[in-house]
Structures are given as C-alpha cells and as structure tokens.
Amino acid sequence: MKKTVDYQKLRGFNYTQPDAANDRVFWAEYHHDIVDRDMGYAERLHLNSARIFLSYDFYKENPDRFLANVKDFVQTAWKHGISTNPIIFMGFRFREDELPWSGFMLEAGLKPIYKTLEDPSCWYIGEKYFDDLYEAIGHEEGLLFWDIANEPGYTDNFVTWYDEEPSYVQDYQERPNMELLRYRQEKTWEIVRHFCRYVKSKDQEHDIGIGNIFIFETEPSRTAELVDVIVFHDYFPTRKRMRDALEYAKKMGEKYGKPVLDNEMCCLARANPYDMSIEMHDEYQIGWYLFELMIGKDMWSRVHGVVYPDGTVRDPSIVAAIGGFFRNRSETAIRSDVNQEDYVKRVSILAERTLHAARQNKGSDHSQDVENLLEVCEYAANLLEAGELVPMAYPPTAKIAAYRRQQNVDAMEIEDYLTELMGTLKKACHIIE
Predict the structure, then answer these.
(1) What residue ranges in 258-352 does DSSP mark as E strands?
(2) Which of 393, 371, 390, 372 is nearest to 381 (CA)?
C-alpha cells in the first residue's frame, strides 16, 4: 500500500552520530545508545524526521554490519516518533579503479567526473546495493521516503550556470568551459535519472526525491517527472533571496503537481541563521530538515547543529524557532533596561568594594579574593546577558565558569575582567560617573 506523506508538516533534521568524524565512521562505529539518546533530544524538540547519509564505502566493506546498523537506526528513531529519510547515494563510485577524491586534479577549472558516470555497465553494482538496502529497511514502518542522492548535480564551485539560476550566484567567478560543463552535468543527471527509475521499479510503496543543491536544478535535470516530491536545499543569506527561492519552489510544485521540500537548510557561515530560515519556510508552508541536529566531531560543527551530546544547546533562539517562536524585529519590540530597579548601581557599589578589598590584601593567599571577584563578575555578566547587551558566541558566564575550573587563578586578571564587564554594563545602560 502506498505510503502517504504530508510534506508540509515535516520538521526534520540531518543526522550524523556526534562522536563520528564523518558518515563512514558513523556506520562503522555505530552506537545504538548514542542514537537512542539523540533521537530523544529530537523528540523533545518535537522534530519528526531524520535524514541520514548512507555510506556505500562501508557497505562494500561489511554489508551485513552496515545493513544491520541502518535497520537499527530506523527502528530506534521510530520508537521516538521520528521517521527516516535515507540518502541512498553520496556520489556514484562503483568502479574499482575510481580515484579517491583527493586524487582528482582540476581540469580547466572544472573537477573531473567519476568514472562510474561514463560506464553504465557497472551501474548494476549500485542496483545490487539498493536491493540489499531495500530488503533491510524497505518494509520498516519508520521509513518515510527515499532520497536518491545528496546534491548530485555537477557544478562549477557550486555554480550551475543554468539560465534558471539567479545572477548573484554566478557573479563571483568567470564563466567556465560551457561545453565541458554541460557534458558533465548531463552525464551526472543520466545516472540520477537511471536510479530514480530503478528505485521506483523496486519500491512502489515509498516516494522518491533528489536532494538537489538548488531548486533551479529541477528542470535542467529533467527529473521532475520522475520524482514524487521536488526536493531542494536552500542556504540563501537574505530574506529577499530566500523568498525568491521559495517562490520558485512553489511554482515548480504547482507546475508539476507535486509537493516541495527543503531537506537541508541553516548555516551560520552562509548568513543563513536558523530562526530566519525556519520562519520563512513556515510562512511558505514548505516542510524542512535542519542541517543538523547534533554538534559533534564532524567538519560542520562550527557552523551547524542545535544540540551538544550532553543536552545543552548552541543557541536557545534556534530551539525557540523550532517551536514556532521568533524574535520580534518590528517597531513593537521593546528594548530591555536592566537598570530599571537600580541593580546596575548596586553591582557598581559591590564591584568597587570587592576590588578595594582585593587591593588591600597584601598576603600571599588570594583565593578568597578570586571567589569574591568572580561572584561579582557573574552578577554583572547576568545583567549583560539578560539584556542581550554582549555577544553570546562566548558568553561572559562561560568565561567565568572557565575561570572557576582553573587552579591558581591570578586575582589581578579577574580584577581586570570585572573592570571590563562593569565598563560594558555602564556604557550599555548610559551611566556616566
């Protein structure tokens, strides 16, 4: 029986086990208990679907273990009410003589394509891989739909040079060898279309989509007719640019009579903050998957991720946005006044007394001074953080906690820090002395 999916209601996340440096390591060193814990975090956030990156390389090395681990993931996630959107292919690399990615040499500014793409005779290996994957999880209740491939489109440094693409994506570099570019793009789409048809021939129960880099690959790839859901990724840096992409996505959905879905979004390094992206997708009623749930050891943790393994979070505004609450950026927003009840005056007096007492201590033991100084630092820091008067990338209270973990802290260093905090607080509250 065909599985029905309400794509508008998907509130998902991309997932890699946080103690793994990459997805091959994730499946090779899979830990049920870690996955169970992390799916618990997702459940608490009221997220409802996980997108996972499968590793053909590890499957080739140990198929039984790989398939058992993937099945355990799907079952474990489903126990928490989390469906699974597996990415079948992360690049098409079936030939034994494929060079490792690091071995590729640039050719006229364009990267070579995999040898597999130009050799259909080896594609049966990928078919066998899917057959095994389908046998392992194809009848699991938690399986939502298949993502044929992650960002398979061939690009020139993430520029497609398609007419559909906005000019601001292209204006950072010179136009490449277009004949070679188009040849390699079409070779890429040939194998993608092949596996769209193959997966549909084997599984009529579940939908398929393609995790396209951009929504404007939809028509040049000639895949819209083959998929059940039009999938794209969006990391645009302003509301206008994001709105243009979402409008285009809605237009594609209406043209082909298919739902649309963004299964990768949110990146601090691309001026694509979580709260903006979630708010915009919710406005357009387009389902989404955050990149990514966990902050761990992989290369993306500096710019992606919501939850640390211990359950703390990078930014509470992300959690608020997932819950549908967004920062007020309108004229009705009220600026906080942390000195409304003269607590800045109180901490100023306390800081002056504490600094004076520390200076008067001529002995060798300043441990009590350090404790007293840090107490006042925290008082000032809490006012600053409560009023959002300081950057929160490294909150003052985090620095204070780090000082408290240290042995033999220099009291004069803490005096300097307290003086700095008080200066920031008084300036923010317009206090002149």
Answers:
(1) 260-265, 287-290
(2) 390
